[in-house]
Write a structure and sequence with these properties.
By secondary structure, this protein is of the alpha+beta class. It has one domain: Winged helix-like DNA-binding domain superfamily/Winged helix DNA-binding domain (Arc Repressor Mutant, subunit A), CATH 1.10.10. It is built from five helices and four strands; from the N terminus they run αββαααββα. It has a two-stranded antiparallel sheet. The chain has a two-stranded antiparallel ribbon with strand order 3-4. A hairpin with a 5-residue loop joins strand 1 and strand 2. Helix 2 packs across helix 3 and helix 2 packs across helix 5. The protein is elongated, with a radius of gyration of 19 Å. The chain starts with a helix and ends with a helix.
Length: 124
């Protein structure tokens, strides 16, 4: 790879948390779902917004709740006005903490990626 090609490199990475048995609990994808639920006030609307299936998302969220040991959603059944889903206080705390963690890691990763590119581009 020529040095000029190193300048074109871009960084992409994923972050996720697992339980002690390495079962996935929360990563970028599930975080986006929880964030969309918080923004739209509805699991169905969040699924539509993200282009994902309701049933699988519902099952994924139930699995996360089981592994964490607390509910993420407060749900009200539909009626003439439709149902709603809001994050529990613990659910909001989780997405806030994940968001802060991700922002901090983004800064660190970008810094070290610049160091890597500098090393690749240097004449050493």
């Amino acid at each position: 790879m020529k040095a000029s090609k190193y300048e074109e490199l871009r960084l992409h990475y994923k972050i996720w948390f697992t339980d002690k048995d390495d079962n996935g609990i929360l990563g970028d994808g599930k975080y986006k779902i929880l964030k969309a639920i918080d923004e739209t006030g509805s699991l169905m609307s969040a699924c539509e917004k993200l282009g994902i299936t309701y049933r699988r998302t519902w099952n994924d969220l139930k699995s996360i709740e089981k592994r964490l040991g607390f509910p993420l959603l407060e749900k009200t059944r539909g009626g003439t006005d439709g149902g709603s889903s809001t994050l529990t206080p613990e659910g909001r705390k989780l997405i806030r903490a994940f968001d802060n963690f991700h922002e901090n890691m983004d800064e660190i990763m970008q810094h070290h990626f610049k160091v890597l590119k500098h090393q690749l581009l240097s004449d050493e």
